[in-house]
Amino acid sequence: MAAATEELQFLGSIPGPESAGEVDGAVAEEGRPRGGDDEEILRFMDSVDGYLLLMNSLSSALRQGWLDLASARHSMGPSRVLSTLFDHKEQSAATKLQVVDHDGLKPSEPKPHFALSKWSLQEECYSTYDVSERAFTEPKMRHRGSVTTPENGNHESANTTASSTGADASNHVQRARSKALSVFGGLVSPKLRTAQLSFETALDLIVELANSRSNMLASFSQLKE
Amino acid sequence: MAGRANIPTNSSALIAIIADEDTVTGFLLAGVGNVDLRKKTNYLIVDNKTTVKQIEDAFKEFTTREDIAIVLISQYVANMIRFLVDGYNKPVPAILEIPSKDHPYDPAHDSVLSRVKYLFSAESVASDRR
């Protein structure tokens, strides 16, 4: 409810009765309902609402991250938690994005879809908000792992493979996290680890925000036409 | 197709960051930092010594690089180059304005929301109906 109020306040005045009368008049004059427009408007409003909610969540995640970082700096010393400690030798980012172009409602509308690949894992990370996008997953997106259904129906070996793949991935992630933390020395404050997790959460939200932005702009283009 | 922006499918794109030190440090901890062969990074730390020209150059560089899919920029930094940010209209890289420690997020200044806000202006609705 509060988010809806904030959204209405942000968007400013909704067309008043006089313009609503014009709208009704336009519907009556045309003699047919504007169902398609209404659906698009609802879709657009949903995407704006989602965008604002996600931004609120991102603010919370970032605040937690900054707080943890400040706590780590306090316990480890200011000279041990600095951006200047980061290595400027050639290095590839461990966390990257996958970008796929989903066709918008019309072929002329570009609608990119972003997916996060954390710590060099070939993993899709779909947003909980963007569940409908799953229907548009293209086969060319890479899928994580090598789990396949055995032809003879031996589910036990499949489960074992899945669990070992999961354990390997988990170990890989832990090693990657430790490597990122090692920039600040061998022994780091637990607060630095929680800061790392907070910013990872923020990254997930950022990818959802990017997808929400993409949906919003696509709906907006549709409405403008 | 004529008039369609080309969005190349990219399976390993980067996130660029233009923000204060703590925000950049946090995201680098999360593994987004990248340094290429020419020692070019995908982030710019903005402090009180950073000039507007440096911010503009970083923004232009990040938005023209093909290996960057999202550009995160603190909203207070975006306000310094508002004309550049508002004038940007490509789908990729996506520009996301994020809050900073001292400057909370203000939806009224967000370039994406500003772009779509006019849809709800009474004037625009009235003019469309004529």
From TrEMBL, chain A:
BP terms from Gene Ontology: vacuolar proton-transporting V-type ATPase complex assembly
Mark out the compositionally biased spans (Polar residues). Answer: 146-173
Name the Pfam families on file.
Vma22_CCDC115
From the UniProt entry, list the residue stretches annotated as the region Disordered: 1-38, 138-174
What would you give as a GO molecular function for this chain, any one?
Answer: unfolded protein binding
Put simply, this protein is called: Vacuolar ATPase assembly protein VMA22
Q: What is the originating organism of this protein?
A: Miscanthus lutarioriparius
Q: From which lineage does this chain's organism come?
A: Eukaryota, Viridiplantae, Streptophyta, Embryophyta, Tracheophyta
TrEMBL record, chain B:
- Which Pfam family is one of those matched by this entry? ATP-synt_F
Coiled coil feature spans: none
- Keywords on this record? Hydrogen ion transport, Ion transport, Transport
Q: Which InterPro entries match?
A: ATPase_V1-cplx_f_g_su, ATPase_V1-cplx_fsu_euk, ATPase_V1_fsu_sf
Native organism is Miscanthus lutarioriparius
Q: Which domain of life is it from?
A: Eukaryota
This protein's record includes keyword Ion transport: yes
What is said about its interaction partners and assembly? V-ATPase is a heteromultimeric enzyme made up of two complexes: the ATP-hydrolytic V1 complex and the proton translocation V0 complex.
Function description: Subunit of the V1 complex of vacuolar(H+)-ATPase (V-ATPase), a multisubunit enzyme composed of a peripheral complex (V1) that hydrolyzes ATP and a membrane integral complex (V0) that translocates protons. V-ATPase is responsible for acidifying and maintaining the pH of intracellular compartments.
Among the GO molecular function terms of this UniProt record, one is:
proton-transporting ATPase activity, rotational mechanism
Identify one Gene Ontology CC term for this UniProt entry: proton-transporting V-type ATPase, V1 domain
Q: Which NCBIfam families match?
A: V_ATP_synt_F
Q: What is this protein called?
A: V-type proton ATPase subunit F
Record family assignment: Belongs to the V-ATPase F subunit family.
